[in-house]
Design brief:
This protein is of the alpha+beta class and 220 residues long. The chain has 2 helices and 12 strands; from the N terminus they run ααββββββββββββ.
């Protein structure tokens, strides 16, 4: 008895086993379907050679596309490895250096210079810089007038008046019409440690941790 003809690339109960896990048809499964088609065709009425050639061409195209996908994936993995290596080296080079990040921390030294940096929105305004200790209590106020844009304010007058240590600060500023001015605060921190995590290097300054991508500027 002649077996029934299997239509090109049509899955039957006998050929469904060739489908890869997850329902995806890979190049191996594609080739097995072609072999199954040849095995089950009617010898008195074989498949049109043109159709078979077209199927072989499809198989070749699928194989080439899969190979290209594998090459792209390999290039992506190499790029990620290169980025991780560069980031690790950069993080090590930051040890012992000061970096600028977004934040409201200010370290008051026992002696020397002291500045804070922030960016005033709009046309700027006038107001005060308020320092608070680790308990949140206000310890100093310094008048400030600034135009719009990046600002560096000298707070050297506080050195010696306040115990050396880590404080937080805020900028309370209003424009000419009395409306609050939006302020973006920055923090200068000295990097004293590096920790490597699955998401990339993490810098530390005392108890403060900083993602490498959050570094805005390296301060010499």
């Amino acid at each position: 008895m002649i077996d029934p003809i299997v239509s090109p690339l049509t899955l039957t109960p006998d050929t469904r086993q060739f489908v890869a896990p997850g329902g995806e048809l890979g190049k191996d499964e594609f080739l097995q379907l072609l072999v199954t088609q040849l095995r089950n065709q009617d010898p008195m009425n074989p498949s049109d050679p043109k159709d078979f050639a077209a199927q072989l061409a499809q198989f070749s195209t699928v194989e080439q596309l899969l190979n290209i996908g594998e090459q792209i994936s390999a290039l992506g993995a190499n790029d990620n490895l290169l980025i991780q290596t560069i980031n690790a080296g950069t993080a090590m080079q930051l040890l012992g250096h000061n970096v600028l990040v977004a934040g409201d921390i200010v370290d008051v030294p026992a002696s020397g210079d002291l500045t804070v940096r922030f960016e005033a929105g709009g046309d700027g305004g006038t107001g005060e810089i308020i320092l608070r200790n680790d308990a949140g209590a206000e310890v100093a106020r310094v008048p400030v007038t600034a135009t719009g844009g990046p600002q560096t304010v000298d707070l050297a007058s506080l050195v010696g008046q306040l115990p050396a240590g880590r404080y937080s600060y805020e900028v309370d500023m209003k424009d000419a019409s009395g409306q609050p001015v939006e302020v973006t605060k920055f923090t200068s921190l000295r990097i004293d440690g590096v920790k490597y995590t699955p998401s990339g290097p993490v810098l530390s300054s005392g108890t403060v941790t900083i993602a490498l991508g959050d570094v805005i500027e390296i301060i010499e």
